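Re: export button greyed out
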Amino acid sequence: MREITYTEAAREALTEQMAVDPSIFVVGEGIGERGGNFNTTLGLYEKYGPMRLRDTPIVERGFVGMCAGAAMTGTRPVVDFMFIDFILDSMGELLNQISKIQYMSSGRIKMPIVLRGCIGIGGAAATHHSGSYYPLFVHIPGFRVALPSTPYDAKGLLKTALTGDDPVLFLEHKLLLNRRGPVPEEEYKLPFGQAAVAREGSDATVVALAVMAPKALAVCDELAKEGLDIEVIDPRTLAPLDMGTILESVRKTGRLLIADETFGPCGIGAEISAQVMEESFDDLDAPIARLNGAHTPTPYSPSLESAIIPDNVAIAKAIRDLVAE
Amino acid sequence: MSSDDITLNSQQLLPLYRMMALIRRTEEQLARSHQMGLVPGPCHTYVGEEAIAAGVCAKLRDDDVVFSTHRGHGHALAKGVSPRAVAAELFGKATGCSQGRGGSMHLFAPEIGLMGTSGIVGPSILQGAGAGYSFKLLGSDQVSVAFFGDGAVSNGAFHEGLNLAAIWDLPVIFVCEDNMYATEVPFREATRVQDVAERASVSYDMAAVCVDGNDVLAVRQASEAAVARARAGEGPSLIECKTYRTRPHAEGMRDGGYRTDEEMAAWKRRDPIASYGAWLLENGHASEGGLEAIEAEVNATVDEAIEFARSSPFPDPATASDFIFSAGV
Ligand SMILES: Cc1ncc(C[n+]2csc(CCOP(=O)(O)OP(=O)(O)O)c2C)c(N)n1
Ligand SMILES: [Mg+2]
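Workaround output, generated via the alternate export path:
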């Protein structure tokens, strides 16, 4: 199969859908002729023109609120925030409006809007350009949250986002953007709420989010040489969250680690852990473990930045500790 | 140069030249350091816009405060942060003005009124207004300055901040650095009213002027009037400065496609430092040797600062989570 980058795969999903659905338009800063700070829309302006690739002033609250109105009246806006940190200026529109309007209109109004942006720590981007924030959106009823870690997943999930009728957060970790992987040329979509078993194993289960997925896979390949047989699950979407696949794996392994670069408190690991205990306590052979980035604004200096994110050594240690419990 | 200010003498004139040269040299060295991989994160330089920070801050006291942007090295230097502390911060070193936590877009030196540069567009305007509120409440005669780009003036923060400062007569100076582009988006495509001073005066009834942002004396004069107004309790002002950045939006970014070589060349001919230098010479305020001596001193200072940054230690990883909360409970 041909291999393309994560960014190319997501862009392919967007351009293919824009070709078949004239109601899709993209707004954001520098997403027109420039093609996006992260090349998310490179070449699309030439194809689809300024009405559908709309460069905006720096008005996040403004264009998010405007896109809510557009989504309610027959179009499909894609809001490209570049860095997801900039979404925070529009929180009122998102949490009070976009997430609630389908519900408040008893389902008569749809809210087909895609909110995309780059997340994650890396490259000394410092604290205004390193956020992830997905637990906030998972907490709120009314958002779908997609967190692909491979080019294949990025394309398939974005297609689903662009053809569904719900608000979708589509979050791309900066360190994944240039990773290559197999992506079929044929049309496909990936349903939300279907985790990937990225690696099968029997000694322990690691649920790994976003950039943690490739990291955990690399670590587990190393640990295999020590005779440790670890299963790695990438949930791919956090809302909905495929607990079935996670529970099934825990039933087999009896041990669970959740690896997530972003903050621990009230996070995805806490949620998965609570659900596993509620559903499957008797299957556990050891306390559930979490591995998170430090609960700290992201520092700039490389010496500090690397200290707050779990690296491969930390992942390996967490797995060894879990298996030794 | 537009100096009708007859009282200016070389004691006031030459520091303006020195500050602009200091900013320029620091930026050039930081850009070079970025290319060499010594500045690990993003780096937005102020090259071409030096007259604004130098002119505005020349009229500020140490206890006046400045709220800045992602393009804030010049504001920091003009407010009095040392080139050492700025360079070390960009190098990610413990000796930087934010102890390595911040980098280019998070420079802090509150001891001398630099209340922060910002990676987010907009907050400087609102926080600037808030500082004005403090000063008014506390009965002090300090003033607050908010710098922001043309990119910020369509943002709600601009309209909300200006309106609040105006209705409550806050001692705030809003300084718009209109360099014609927000990243690559031309200002003319971001608004139908590019006259920012008019927006302030017509919409918010605020004292507002538009000046040549490459003319340090014009900026200084506008700052003088705005500071006097603020200190006298007469409310906020806006200074719109027309300028141009002659380097890419950020180091390492492409710079073609959205602006022409002719436009760039025309603005380079209006370089704020060269034109001020020429004015100083023509009017007998400085000799060639005098200006060269200033440049030599500045270059030595900056080169030493870069060396300081390079040889400083990285912060101790164990301190990564320090300062999230105030000490004590
Ligand atoms: C709220 C927010 N949205 C988007 C960005 C990304 N961004 C950084 S700088 C910039 C352009 C700013 O333009 P302007 O205000 O004119 O300042 P200049 O860079 O020209 O000095 C943008 C869009 C941001 N930092 N904050
Ligand atoms: Mg600008």
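Chain A has a mean pLDDT of 98. The button fix ships in the next patch.
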